Amino acid sequence: MTLDPFYPIVDSAGWIDRLVPLGVKLVQLRMKDLPEARLRAEIRRAKATCAANGCQLVVNDYWRIAIEEGCDFVHLGQEDLAAADVAAIRAAGLKLGLSTHDEAELATALTARPDYVALGPVWPTILKKMKWAPQGVERLRDWKARIAPLPLIAIGGLNPDRLSAVFENGADSAAVVTDITLNADPEARTREWIARTAPWR
């Protein structure tokens, strides 16, 4: 499977409406602590926008709703993976991406036969408090050697100036959150990311 090298992660369909029409081809919708009706409405809206723009939508965490809403890609963290019915996800035809932060989590992830593996944080991140130290780009190279031919996603502290280091060390896609969502001009920053990742597209 081939993934676009630019992988923004956003927390609402509103963000997807803003960014996907700019040329985004892979996006994750990661929402927390919303009522189910709101979750479904957000997923439906995001799915429609992505379908209209040729963008792959990845739903974070809510695998049951993703199945029921006819989505085709879900991303799980390790805690969510432990509680998920991977057989049901596969039976529904969904692709599966998994987060990893250390050796034990990589081993757990690989037993689930994911369609991609994410490693982070590569650099310090302000998105959330992490119990793991920054992994560094050398760990990307090690992870890629161990999971190939699966795609490897790098996440944590990424910005356009760090892309060469990420891709030269084995990552297939660069996931980004705050470098776009906290930017003074998210649309301009998104266009910059699209342009800067073009050599790896």
Count of distinct structural domains: 1
Query: Which of globular, elongated, flat, extended, rod-shaped describes the shape?
Result: globular
> Beta fraction of the residues?
15-25%
Radius of gyration: 16 Å
Please describe the biggest sheet, giving its number of strands, its sense, and whether it closes into a barrel: 8 strands, parallel, barrel
> Which stretches are poorly predicted, pLDDT < 50 over at least 5 residues?
none
- Strand neighbour order, sheet with most strands: 1-2-3-4-5-6-7-8
Judged by helices, strands and strand pairing, the structural class is alpha/beta
Q: Mean pLDDT, as a whole number?
A: 95
Kindly report the name of the CATH homologous superfamily.
Answer: Aldolase class I
The number of distinct helices, counting runs of at least 4 residues, comes to 10
Topology, element by element:
Blueprint: E1 6-10, H1 13-19, E2 26-29, H2 36-52, E3 56-60, H3 63-68, E4 73-76, H4 78-83, H5 86-91, E5 95-100, H6 103-111, E6 116-119, H7 137-147, E7 152-155, H8 163-168, E8 173-176, H9 178-181, H10 186-197
Parallel strand pairs: 1-2, 1-8, 2-3, 3-4, 4-5, 5-6, 6-7, 7-8
Helix pairs in contact: 1-2
